[in-house]
């Protein structure tokens, strides 16, 4: 009786994101995260101070976790507070100025609102992030965080070709540093530099379609040579290299110089 009476399920993120909400999504309900207070060092015995490394990446991870869980919206209920999107003058924040959390949220809010999340595998790069595509399929956006102390170069595998990339970078000393990189030629696998301890949004606009490959694959298993039977007994088994050491004389060429029409 309740299901037809509402469209949006609002939940809190405390304790992590569980799986029960997916049942509501399957019934066509939108999922909104409507409250999650990540207070600065709230359990610390010392005076609360802003910790860039902890605060920024904890906040990024909270939003990104919901995006990966296919939430429709992530709402920070305190717009103006020292732990909100605008500072209130407490604990070192400037009254009315955009905080680092505000910048982190803007990396999502400015560029992926209205888009659809698509799968993205960051593998062993050390990056956290998520990827999105526009309704028309002509713009792809990747939002990512590099918590390490080293720059990371990421190769982005796009569903189309592009001629440029717009990159917005937030670091400890910069907010939304904007750069446009023109590619030498159309590319479907451009590289993006993600600086150390940064949040980066990379935007790619389609220049032409990327053709799908018709290549088929199959698994072929090759037996270990130690388990194979010598096809000609007189060849013996001295050719096997498994478990042995061989020294090759590099002064003698492996390719014969006797190459003419008679000798092949």
Detailed description of the structure:
The protein has helices at residues 21-26, 52-68, 100-112, and strands spanning 8-12, 30-35, 73-74, 116-118, 128-133, 139-146, 152-155, 160-170, 177-187, 191-194, 198-209. The longest helix has 17 residues, at 52-68. The chain has 264 residues and is an alpha+beta fold. β5 (128-133) and β6 (139-146) form a beta hairpin. It has a six-stranded antiparallel β-sheet, with helices on one face. A three-stranded parallel β-sheet has the order 1-2-3. The protein contains three helices and eleven strands. Helices cover 14% and strands 27% of the residues. The termini are far apart. It is elongated, with a radius of gyration of 28 Å. The mean pLDDT is 87.
Low-pLDDT ranges: none
Class per helix and strand makeup: alpha+beta
- Main β-sheet: number of strands, strand sense, barrel status? 6 strands, antiparallel
Oligomeric organization of the protein chains: single chain
Helix content: 10-25%
What is the averaged pLDDT score?
Answer: 87
How widely separated are the two ends?
A: 85 Å
Principal-axes geometry comes out as: elongated
Q: How many strands appear in the DSSP assignment? A: 11
**Separate helix tally:** 3
How much strand? 25-35%
Order of helices and strands: EHEHEHEEEEEEEE
How many whole angstroms does the radius of gyration measure? Answer: 28 Å
How are the strands of the largest sheet arranged? Answer: 4-5-6-11-8-9
